[in-house]
């Protein structure tokens, strides 16, 4: 909406952008999982455990284990 407004009015509209940090985990050559870096520690442990399971499963399917 802001972009359309700028194009129509020709005026600058203040845009507030907040950066968001992410952790990226490569689960396989063709699989990248992104997790927000500000996730709670308990949640990150949970996510990493599930990622471990997923990576193990993907490797078995690819015949790497």
List keywords for this structure.
elongated, 2 strands, 65 residues, 46% helix, two-stranded antiparallel sheet, alpha+beta
Describe this protein's structure.
The protein is α+β, with helices and mostly antiparallel strands and 65 residues long. It has one domain. The protein is built from 2 helices and 2 strands. The protein has a two-stranded antiparallel ribbon with strand order 1-2. The chain is elongated and about 60 Å long.
Strand content: 15-25%
Order of helices and strands: HEEH
Strand order of the largest sheet: 1-2
Helix segment count?
A: 2
Shape: elongated
Number of strands: 2
Radius of gyration: 20 Å
Could you estimate the helical fraction of the residues in percent?
Answer: 40-55%
Low-pLDDT stretches: none
Mean pLDDT: 84
What's the number of domains? Answer: 1
Largest sheet descriptor:
2 strands, antiparallel
Task: Give the structural class.
Answer: alpha+beta
Taking the alpha carbons of the first and last residues, their distance comes to 50 Å
Please provide a brief summary of the model:
The chain is 46% helix and 20% strand. It has helices at 2-9, 41-62, and strands at residues 22-28, 31-36.
Show the helix and strand layout:
Layout (H helix, E strand, L loop, with lengths): L1 H8 L12 E7 L2 E6 L4 H22 L3
Antiparallel strand pairs: 1-2
């Amino acid at each position: 909406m802001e972009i359309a407004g700028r194009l129509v009015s020709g005026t600058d509209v203040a845009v507030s952008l907040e950066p968001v940090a992410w952790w990226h985990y490569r689960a396989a050559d063709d699989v990248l999982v992104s997790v927000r870096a500000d996730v709670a520690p308990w949640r990150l442990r949970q996510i990493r455990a599930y990622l471990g399971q997923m990576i193990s499963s993907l490797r078995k399917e690819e015949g790497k284990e």
